[in-house]
Fold this protein.
Amino acid sequence: MRNIGKSLLASIALVALAAPAPTLAQQAEPTVTHQVINSFDGTPIYSTLFLPPEASATEPVPLVMRSHGWGGQGEREPTGLVRTLLDNGYAVFTWDERGFGYSGGEANVLKPELEGRDATVLIDWIAANADEVAREPGDPADPRIGFTGGSYGGGIQLLSATLDDRVDVLAPEITWNDLRYSLYGGGVINLGWGETLYAAGLATATAAGLDPRNPAGPQAGGLAPELHEAQAEGLATGQPSTQTLDYFGRSSLAEYGQDDGVEVPTLLMQGSVDTLFDLTEAADNFQHLRSRGAPAKLIAFCGGHVGCPASYAEVDDRAHLDEAILTWFERYLRGDTGVDVGAPVEYRTNEGIWRTASHFTPSDARMQTASGHGSVLSTPLPSTIDAAPFVDDVLSGAVPPGAPLFTAQPSRAGDPHAFTTEVAVADRGPMELVGIPTATLQVTGSGPVTHLFLKLVDRESGVVVNLQETPVRVENLSSTPQTVRVRMSGLAYTVPDGHHLDLQVATTSVMHATARTPAEADVDVDVSVPIRRAVH
């Protein structure tokens, strides 16, 4: 049930971020309590409440709820960003999502009627039991609440904000807009990520809950039956069913947000080299918020589910994000209207310089167009992978940037499965590619189906731009042209002076599932790439 009538800003005393910090020896430690909260259907949810030393019933502080990534568990010690939030005067509440950690039930990939209702029950518990948490003026049932967390822990933020009006501020990292796009974009299975996430969830959903130290008692956890069915179906048929697409659609803001959208201040942080949830997903979330009049900011950094490549300049992205989170909460959770949260869009490319814009794509970017034609063979390739070596990487937060199962690789010259078209040359200094490219394909040929993979390539560097490729499934090839229009993965990349930008269209991929049957395709392609001249 939605809670109506809250005020936008609470009257809360400010804690000055610039005040001198006491030494470690002088610092009082936070209070940490662990509790099991029974959800709406009796499922035990394990949680942890961290209170900064200064918090009390007479001096309450805002609270930040923070969940975990897929297959993980809530933080139980005051370290990392939890410690940073505590040191800046926020209470923190973490929990194990349904199906993971010490909590019971089955993981359903954040359904409104399950994990969404869990979050509302947790807010109810905070309102009833945590007097040290600030309230909206005159409403003791409405705690002052912000959210942080990444990936799965970002998805629960968007979901919770559509279900419960007591959620005030969001700061999701590397999360999705539409899982149908993330996992089955263009009708093609994102095989590397799909297999590894399934393996990671399967490995962890039944493990921690059976720990004899679990205060909730033995909890087998597990994955929802629909996830096992999607796994089996993908391996058997090479494509998702309507039922699978519907299942993941119901876990997506793109679907559930059509009725009850997100209308609270939201800081979106997305990795340019994240090949699971790319910048196009963040741009769609950003547009959703703006269309509803909510304050919104998008930061495109280097990292995410894939680590930042060593060839990219080092600028300490984590510190930049943490500072942005604290600034966002100071402005919208504490309500200090004097705090400047900066431009609506911040991004950094491989060059390592932070820049700003008002939109993603920037309004001053020009669209560089190019056309090409090629004939490509589609040859069946094995569509199974061994996900086991990558489970630990996924659970730790990022896979290595060179791992081919998660990153696009350039096609070799002369490969009959690919052709290359020049798009632009950086002949007047470096070129920044910032925003969302588009492409239109006219496809003829022979064969029941082909999968095409579109990649922008920095020719001289020999790398795919931001490690991204965009998949397209084309069925029933014939002499009659089929037109396919594609939004490609969003970009934040600088093409060095003198380098060429190419578009490659291929039928082979290690990251995505390839077609199961032979085919030949003739492809005419028109591509449009947003280019912003780099300023030095």
